[in-house]
Amino acid sequence: MIAKIKELVPGGRGIANLENGKKAFIWNALPGEEVEFETTKSKTHYEEGIATKIITTSPHRIAPKDECFLSTSPWQIIDYHEELIQKSKVVTDCFRQMHLDFTVQPTITDGKDFYYRNKMEYALYWSNEDDRIHLAFHARGTHRKNPITQSSIERPEIFAEASRIVDDLNAKHAEARAYQSLLVRCNQAGNVSSALFENRKPHPTMTTLEDTLNGYKYTYSPNGFFQINLPVYEMVLKQITQNIQTNKVVDLYAGVGSIGLSVARDKDLTLVEINESAFKEMQKNAAGTNAKCILAKAEDVTDYITPDCTVILDPPRAGCDKKLIEKLLEIKPEQIIYLSCNPITQAENLHPIIADGYTLQNIQPYNFFPRTPHIENLTILNKT
Questions:
Q1: Are residues 198 and 57 in the same domain?
Q2: Among 260, 240, 262, which Cα is nearest to 252's?
Q3: Same domain, 295 and 234
Q4: Residues 125, 153 share a domain
Q5: How many CA atoms lie within 13 A of 293 on its CB side?
Q6: What is the per-residue pLDDT across 310-332, written as a single tens digit (0 to 9) for each?
Q7: Residues 308 and 343 in one domain
Q8: pLDDT at position 264, please?
Q9: pLDDT at residue 192 is higher than 90
Q10: pTM for the whole thing?
C-alpha cells in the first residue's frame, strides 16, 4: 500500500490520508515522503504500519546507526537538528489540540544524541543456528524477538555488561526460555548494576547506585524510577531552581526526591510519593534536611498545598488525577511547575488551570530521549 506522509504526530509515527478514506500511522516514515508500507494493524477508520520502501525521500532522512532502531529509537532516521524542530512542533500540536495557543521554545539538548541512556532492559533470544543465547529486542508492535549485535542509545558500559552476562550464560549452556529479561543500569561514573530476571522467580535485589545532581548525592535502586538521561535532567533542575518564587514547596509524584531535594532543600519542602520502594530511597536522600516525606497518593495529601506555595508536578504518562487538578483550582497555589513525559496529558491537565487565570510563563521541551519520539516538557505557571 502507498501513502504520502503529511506530518509526524505525537507518538512518533508519520500520518497519511489513504485513498480508501482511512488514516494511516506509519513508522519509518517522514513528512513529505511517499512510502510503501506493510500494514501491522487494520481498524475501521485507520491503519497502522511500517514503511518498507521509501519512494520519495525527505531531505532530513539519514541512515540509522543500528539495525534494531525501530525497536529502540525509531527517530534514528531523522537528522538531529530536524528532530529538535519536530519535537517542539509536536508539543505545539498537543497544546493546540486543547486550544492552548502558546509559543513553544526550541527543544533544549546537551548535544549528545547517542550513548546517553543509563538503563536498558534486554530480552534474550535463543538461536538454533549457533545454539547460543543472544541479546534481543522485541520487534515494534509484536512479541517477536530480534537478536542484536549492536545498540547505540545506551551507555557503552551497559551494552558491555549485558554482553558479558550473555557470554557467561552461554558458557554455562543456559537456556534463554528460563529468563524473562536482563536489566542493566549504570551511573555517571560508569559503575554498573545488573540482574537477570528468571521466570516464575522473585526479582533479585540489585546493587544500589549513586549519582550527583545539582551538587547533591542521591542513591536509588537500578530497577526503580530514576531519570534515564542525567546530564539533560540537570539542565531541567537548574531551570526549575531559577524560577521558584516561594519559600514553601510541595513536590508531588516525588519518586526518590530528586527534583524537590535538588531545587528546594533549603526551603519549607514536602515530598509526596506512593511507591513504597521509592519512598524509602527518598527518606535516605532527605536525611539531614528538614524535608517532610509523605507516603501517599498525590491527590490524597492536598492539605499540604496552600495559596502561598509552589507545587511541583512530575506525574506518570497518564497525567495528574482529576481530583488533584480540582484541588489545585480550589486552593490556587502561587506557582505550579509541571514536568511531563507526555505533553498530551500535560496539556489536558493545564487547560482548566490556565482557563482559571494562571499565566503560562513558558513551555520548554527537553530532549531527554534523543533518536526517539519521546519528549520531556517543562511548564511554569504563576497565579495572576
A1: no
A2: 260
A3: yes
A4: yes
A5: 20
A6: 999 999 999 999 999 999 999 99
A7: yes
A8: 97
A9: yes
A10: 0.94
